[in-house]
Amino acid sequence: MKTRSKSRESKASDNSSALAIISGNSNKQPKKPRPRKRPTAADDPKKPKKPPTAFFYYMEDFRKIYQAEHPEVKSMREIGKACGDKWKIMNFEEKVQYYDIATEKRAGYEKALAAYNKRKESGELTEESDDEYK
Questions:
Q1: Cα separation of 28 and 92, whole Å?
Q2: Alpha carbon distance 48, 109 (integer Å)
Q3: Are 46 and 116 in contact (CB under 8 A)?
Q4: What is the pLDDT of residues 30-51, one digit of tens each?
Q5: If we measure between CA atoms, which residue out of 104, 94, 89 comes closest to residue 53?
Q6: Which of 51, 64, 59 is nearest to 90 (CA)?
Q7: With a threshold of 0.85, does the pTM exceed it?
Q8: Three-class SS of residue 71?
Q9: CA atoms of 66 and 70, how far apart (whole Å)
Q10: How far apart are CA 43 and CA 3, in angstroms?
């Protein structure tokens, strides 16, 4: 008989812990508040956007060629996977033209960003002037 009563007691304690969880009376600590998201470039629409990497310039060219050779493939996932596989096996001499394009675009971005920061520091880009465009 003792074994039955012990098993009944353990079942009762299991049920009480389940009820405590359901009713919200568990001993767990409350969840911490989530940290705030960091502001992004989208917060300021006048800030210049970063240019794509060399791989994305290669992908533009590759996509056109691949779609011409394989018109039945419509999935961007398959095209992107094929592009990535090809990019990995390319040697540096083949990639240089895309790195050159990316470097030129990056230099233009850095100039535009410097001009943006200069205008922002001088006060030309204030919140009051931003409200005019909304």
A1: 56
A2: 7
A3: yes
A4: 777 888 777 665 577 888 999 9
A5: 104
A6: 59
A7: no
A8: coil
A9: 6
A10: 67
